[in-house]
User: What shape does this take?
Amino acid sequence: MKNKILSQAKFCILHFALCISFTSCTDLDMPSDGRVELEDIFAQRNTIVGYYNSLLEEIPATGFTYRSGKNPTPLAVFCDEAEDVNNRVNSAPYNWYTGVTTAVSNPLYDEDSNDDSDDSNNAWKYYFATIRRCNTFLQQIPGYTATDITAVEVAGMVAEVKVIRAFSYLQLMKRYGRLPLNDKPYEVTHDYSQDKRASIEEVADFIMADCDAALETPEDNTQDMSFLWTPRNSTQRTKIPRAFAWAVKSQTALYAASPLFYEAGSKYGWDKAAEITKAALDQCIEHGYELYNRSMNEEMNAKTLNTYGYYFIQRADPTRSLDKETIFESRLQTSIWTNAALPIVQGGLTAGPCPSQELVDAYEMQETGLPIDDPASGYDETNPYDGRDPRFYASIYYNGALFKWKKGESQYFTPQLLFARHSGMAAYDINGGIGGGIDSDTITIETTEANAYIETAMLQGKIEYDEAYLVFDYISNKDANASFYVAAGAKGVPISAETVTISLPKANTGASIRHNLSEFIEKSGFGKLTIGTTAPSEHRLGLKLSEADLTIRICNWKIDMATPPQPLMSVEAHVGGSCGFSENTAETRRTRTGYYMRKFNSAASETGNNDDGYFKIFRLGELYLNFAEAAYNATSPDTKYGSLSARDAVNAVRDRAGMPPLPSMSNADFEKRYRNERRVELAFEEHRFFDVRRWKILNETDKGVHGMKITLKNPPTDSTLVYERVPMVTRQTYTDKYLLYPIPQTEVNKMLQYTGTSWQNPEWE
Assistant: This one.
């Protein structure tokens, strides 16, 4: 019934909006005959909360949401990060590359943008519709008559809706520049002749005011619907955290101060941007956000090679038990394995967005920390992929890259975690489904003295394999030891000696254990790796914790009956290789540039198993870089803002990646290195497209990209690799005209009629 009421409510509102859309440039609600229905919606808890929940879903999915023919593609192909193999005539990339863009037909809008079910890429239409709905909520909620909604809940909903409105205006500003501002639904009698496009300073003020008002709302950690720093459970993935508001402020200040948007005399210069971006960073760090830096185990390496890569395939945990970096994550799971696929991947459809040589060149040398064009870097043109920034290996498949690890005859056995309360326990808590999107149980334990026990439910199967591993993730406040035992019966009476001990080092940001059970099972007297029977067993597997004053949280517990991962194959991206380069424009399964996209992709993904990750809409890494850019422009790379300088902020990001720190240097040199660092760290995350525009360097970056054609010198006798840099299609989208989107012509025509002024952006008339 709740869903039915919500659907009826949304239909009612949308129906009225559509009825009046021919007179409204922003398609906002008007009361007209809908007044009664709106009052009904805001008179009972179900429909109020339903409306609020639907607004949370207005934060659009990001990732592969554009169109290349019938294939989804990322924004990366519309800038110098990638070239799409599906750039056929009339595809969005082809029309963009060839300059077939007008105010009537914009390739960056979804090709099905006339379908109201998916307008997220028709930015003007989508975000103003969201603003319309936010305004309706904010106007109606003060008069709510429901008695089963608390004041804390109302305040929390209002705060989050204001942040959603601020986010929507930020997205519009990034694309269109100056905007009309409105904080109320349009009335039937609204005088459109008085409407105007506000200045960037006014738009930024509006965004900041909404975020500040939200952040002034008190936080009540006992209420799920309060405006919280950390949602109370993992089901609240769409809930807006307080860090989201700070991230919007950070990005808004950075953009407003950038060359494209800065207006002479505006308060939003680099000084102001440095102040705001530093405050945003400080607030997030103060409230527990950290750069993701988990130690790797064999299973994690088998999927992504390193910590940076693993971060982007893990589902963010809203409660931040393991992932403390993600502020907000797209609700759309990527499908790199099918839409940016290696030809050797089962189920792959297209090579899709192929990384450019320009992006590959941006990855520096790890040992020296220098760009590859520096003679002292150590770069070898005959071995171009050796010794590069670790983020290169996590983001791009190249010729010779290891692709997949063989796990042998794997079978996962996942007994439910229970807890047996014994002496020495201060507290324990069992919570469902946190961490990486895996729905296994989680246990939090606090001990006052030694000897606390964790046990599984009765084992419902038989372990009888050459090797078996206990696998789990944990965070803990101190070093600890744990020993294995086997218990029997409903009360979990130990029936084996605690003969094998493992160490659990202190882990503030999360660590993983993968422990071979062979020694333990052998010493326990259960024969050749056998616990339980094929029928339900009375046996339980247990761990005894031996530390007092320990707080530990364990999740994703399972037994992996498998051989250790072993390398299986490498990517052959040379001409004639298994993933070989192709210049045939009709060939869409093979790379056009010599590279394939890897970021967000798990090597475990294939038909029947999408293990790929989710795009991060906001994360702490971006906030470090936002501050760095504002700070060096305001002063210098080494000027301290509190304890942090621009160079310190960049080096924090580099350190997590395993790169040497940047040394002291001039502003001009730092700017070059900073922009390169931002390009590498945020690759494929929908930043580069806007960065080259706000920096006004399109004529340097977007005339076209290159690929690397690799051939064997004289096979089969001489397999020396020959590298040839080859140009892709020439692009027409590098002039100042393309710094901003064209405002849709229908909206320009309406406002020209009402105001006598053209609202169109420069050169799009």
